[in-house]
Design brief:
By secondary structure, this protein is mainly alpha-helical. It has 13 helices and four strands.
């Protein structure tokens, strides 16, 4: 068990270093592109810094409110859902983080997430459809996963960087449009503007990949935190499989909420995931002896679509089968 705690601490250090490095690279790329464009159109350094800061400030201030409105969140008091409050309070104290506010989202697709500018302003959201689906151990494992995000400062980091791809996209679009209409000042050559716009689109693409990769990493470490904190990796595995199966049976056709990148599990199950779950059925049975694998496979196949590696690359969550197999491996380590 001591070995597991040591490996968890090493994993947290690795996560933080990766997050800081990714943040540095993302901000450096974004600022360099903005600076090049602003210098080209004749703006000074102060204007460049000011415009960048304004974009960041708007994102920082507006994002939580946007998530509350778009999610139609209902904040609950201590007298509502007392068991939920007890679990969150206990897990937050155990993690050494401020107790987040709790809100219920009126959605039947099962999921949960946490968001906020800082730990002190965090909100933990549970979808209405998740409540009747999970038993107490499973619900605790999901809540521990979300508290793990707070402990690792994931919400702050993702809130800081999520606006940059949007900003890059806006720059690329405006540059291309300006180039198509011949520029808008004496310094603006149409072909140069279009070239800059195309370059901004390329950087937008790579920024998205970097952020998605960071998102997948933070999900893996939150899984590990949940498993080691509760001592029941099988409960989180069971929760993930239930959520995945439900989303496969009744996939969400469109999700325009700002929270979808924060969800504990993605909204679809690909055929690739289904095939991998079948291939590793023996490990799954060891982790979840009571799992009706055939029933799960039959349900998952109803909504599975072939997407494979490309889907995983552009996903903000690791594939469910990889997360469950990692939990199976962790359970073996915890027994040593």
């Amino acid at each position: 068990m001591a070995q597991t705690r040591g490996s968890n601490m090493a994993a947290i250090v690795k996560l933080r270093l990766t997050m800081y490095l990714t943040l540095a690279v993302i901000f450096a790329i974004a600022f360099a592109i903005i600076a090049a464009i602003m210098f080209y159109i004749g703006a000074g350094l102060i204007a460049i810094i000011g415009i960048t800061a304004l974009f960041f400030l708007f994102q920082w201030i507006a994002s939580p409110a946007l998530m509350r409105v778009m999610g139609r969140l209902k904040y609950i008091g201590e007298n509502e859902y007392p068991k939920l409050h007890d679990m969150v309070n206990r897990l937050a104290k155990q993690a050494g983080v401020p107790i987040p506010k709790i809100a219920i989202a009126p959605r039947q697709d099962p999921n949960a997430y946490v968001f906020g500018r800082t730990r002190n302003s965090a909100t933990l959201v549970v979808h209405q459809g998740l409540l009747p689906m999970l038993n107490d151990d499973e619900m605790e494992s999901v809540l521990a996963h979300e508290i793990g995000h707070l402990r690792h400062n994931d919400t702050t980091v993702m809130m800081m960087i999520s606006f940059l791809p949007m900003l890059m996209y806006m720059i690329a679009q405006n540059m291309l449009l300006s180039g198509m209409f011949g520029g808008n000042s004496r310094n603006n050559n149409a072909s140069v503007l279009m070239l800059v716009g195309a370059a901004a689109f390329i950087f937008y693409f790579f920024l998205q990949l970097m952020i998605l990769g960071l998102s997948r990493m933070r999900e893996s470490y939150a899984d590990e935190y949940s498993a080691t904190t509760t001592g029941k990796p099988e409960s989180l595995a069971s929760s993930l499989l239930k959520i995945s199966a439900s989303n496969a049976i009744a996939p969400v056709k469109s999700d325009n909420t700002a929270a979808k990148s924060f969800y504990i599990a993605g909204l679809t199950t690909s055929q690739e995931e289904i095939n991998q779950i079948r291939e590793h059925s023996s490990e799954l049975k060891k982790l979840l002896p009571n799992l009706n694998l055939k029933q799960f496979m039959d349900e998952a196949k109803k909504g599975g679509t072939g997407a494979g590696m490309m889907m995983n690359l552009f996903s903000n969550h690791p594939p469910i089968y990889k997360r469950v197999l990692a939990l199976a491996e962790l359970k073996k380590e915890m027994k040593k």
